[in-house]
Structure formats: structure tokens, C-alpha cells
Specification:
Structural class: mainly alpha
Number of helices: 4
Number of strands: 0
Order of helices and strands: HHHH
Distance between the termini: 56 Å
Helix content: over 70%
Length: 111
């Protein structure tokens, strides 16, 4: 339990703060100020970068050390946080296209 608490403060809180900082900078830099679009774009880009970083970490460990552990806590935590952001991105993305009419994704209404 102590290890989980340490990982929470060491990995998840800095990743959350970094996500909020990047989200705030996107809010001030982009001209489109729609909140749901902003959340979708921010979570999508950050999830892509984090999941790519988790794959690169394993490859770099293998190249530099000659062996790669099956899992490290840092790599696992980056992957979990990226996966959570990807789920948020998918859920919010349903409201960006077709403007919240989610049923249109699943039913053919254009015929």
C-alpha cells in the first residue's frame, strides 16, 4: 500500500499537473474556444504522446542496457495514465462530431 501511495505522488500527480498545464496552454493558444473540443484535443494528443513514450522507454531500455524488464512502474504508470486519457478522449469525441447526437453514430440516418 505504501508503494502505491508513493507511485501516486511520484508519477500520477506530476502527470496530472502536466496535463493541466498543457490543457491551459492549448486553451490560450487555440482560436476555437469550445470546451468539449478542447478537452478532446488535449486528451487525444497527450494520450498519444504518453502511449508512444511508454513504447519508446521499453525500446531504449533494451538498446542501452541489452535487456529489458517485463515491466517497470514508471512505464506502467505512463501507460495507465495515457490509457485513461484515451478513454476520456473517446468519450468526449462522441460529442464533438455530430454535435452530441450520439445515436447518429450507430444508426444510418443519412439514407
Amino acid at each position: 500500500m505504501q508503494n502505491l501511495r508513493l507511485r501516486f505522488f511520484k508519477h500520477y500527480i506530476p502527470l496530472s499537473i502536466l496535463t493541466l498545464i498543457i490543457g491551459t496552454s492549448f486553451f490560450y493558444l487555440w482560436t476555437k474556444k469550445d470546451l468539449i473540443t478542447l478537452i478532446t484535443n488535449v486528451t487525444g494528443y497527450i494520450a498519444f504522446v504518453l502511449l508512444s513514450a511508454s513504447l519508446i522507454i521499453g525500446t531504449m531500455n533494451y538498446i542501452l542496457k541489452g535487456f529489458s524488464p517485463v515491466s517497470t512502474y514508471f512505464r506502467r504508470d505512463i501507460s495507465v495514465f495515457g490509457g485513461v486519457l484515451a478513454i476520456i478522449h473517446s468519450a468526449c469525441g462522441l460529442f464533438v462530431h455530430l454535435l452530441g447526437n450520439i445515436w447518429q453514430y450507430f444508426l444510418c440516418t443519412h439514407l
